[in-house]
Design brief:
90 residues, mainly alpha, 78% helix
């Protein structure tokens, strides 16, 4: 026999909260989304959460073993800036 396909209260609540949040974000003007919200998300993800910093540094160290630590950090900063530019452009 098949199991009941009832949606739990928590799932319904989560859906409604996300739907409401997306609806509210959709009401914001584009300049706010582009300049304020995007910069805030960047700060949270890249600066506070340190997203993939270790992976980037390990990959650069493996790719350029002759470079010093300072040079690798400068390259990593350029890679990060490139990623930001690609996310804004795309």
């Amino acid at each position: 026999m098949s199991k009941s396909n009832k949606i739990t209260f928590g799932a319904r609540l989560g859906y409604r909260l996300m739907y409401g949040a997306c609806w509210l974000v959709g009401l914001l003007p584009w300049w706010f989304l582009y300049y304020v919200l995007a910069d805030t998300i960047y700060f949270l993800v890249y600066k506070l959460a340190r997203y993939r910093v270790k992976v980037v540094r390990a990959n650069l160290a493996g790719s350029f073993p002759e470079k010093s630590v300072g040079e690798l950090r400068a390259i990593a900063a350029c890679v990060e800036a490139l990623g930001i530019a690609a996310s804004v452009a795309g």
